[in-house]
Amino acid sequence: MLGSMTQSSTMKVADSPDGEFYMKIKEVIPLVRPEDLVVSGWDINSMDLANAMKRAQVFDYELQQKLEPYMKEFKPLKSIYYPDFIAANQEDRADNILEGNDKLLHLDQIRQDIASFKKNNDLNTVIILWTANTERFALEIAGVNDTYENLMKSIKENHPEIAPSTIFALAALQENCTFINGSPQNTFVKGIRDAPFSSLLIGNDFKTGQTKFKTSFIDFLTSAGIKPKSCVSYNHLGNNDGKNLASEKQFKSKETSKSECIKDLLDNSLLYDPRHPEEYPDHTVVIKYVPNAGDSKKAIDEYSSEIFMGGEHTFVSYNVCEDSLLAAGIIIDLIILSELMTRISFKRSQDDWRSLEGVCSFLGYLTKAPESKGPIINSLPRQRACIENLIRVLVGLPLEDNLLLGYRL
Question: Is 368 among the catalytic positions?
Fold first, then answer.
């Protein structure tokens, strides 16, 4: 599966007299196979997946014909639609929604859907993945969503600042399911992060192409002592995601996740003084909806930097790709690796075994704005090394230091 770290890439596992030895990541540690996943879901639009596939116009016609008999069996469950949280241009798609505005009733229904899906398919683990429209940021208000108790009270009172994605995240927690937020909005308000449940929270926003490149390239510049002065990212796309982002409130959510992804790289260099934010590079993100582009997102990035003796270095990249197909591998990796996280236990003392719970930062490699209880790390090489080193620890391999001392003795 191209585009998937777990399925199509390798990691070093040993040195030998003949050189380094690599293995497929999926063979180093037992992982769930993509073909063993059972899939269902919700959508505000009632179209079955066969017709949705035709509407999206991502797959070639011949492939659509082959997949249609299998895809038409999948019809989405009714979802939550609070118009204030997504663009008004989505209203004509909203024909498959839970009735009324009783948010507690909606929460209970989503929980019932999860429980029924798990029971009917005899599943060990259920993972909820948000791939729906980008929402506007929810206001984080004291007394409303700042504690779990206040969040539940606000849901019972149908408070307008409770977002659909937050309802889904809470339902996942209450049903002991991992929740992955694949969009940039602040789904994990404090009341969610502090909820008294042992499930995992992973987010935010799939990190596919442009942001992966940006976090690796800015890391290269600052590590080399080159001083970025401006970073300008322009995007245009024509799918429904682009249509939703044409709304200013929803665009602001995406702008935040794209803009914040290099801040720690700049803070941790010697090139800027955090006390003088005006010295930081101009960082601009532009997203435009161009229907003719379809699912092919087109991205232009310009990086201008200061080099030795006041010289200037400018680097420009142009990227074109099917947005959905690039995200597919990321989605598979998030599901497979988050399932692995549910099987990990650790102990601080002899008999104090416990599972991972709460915000899980190990998978920052796959998200633009990784949630973390500790420092935020956006350097792409460090994020990749985090996953590899975790796997090494789990199978008893030494951490990779790249010193190659074995060849010097």
Answer: yes
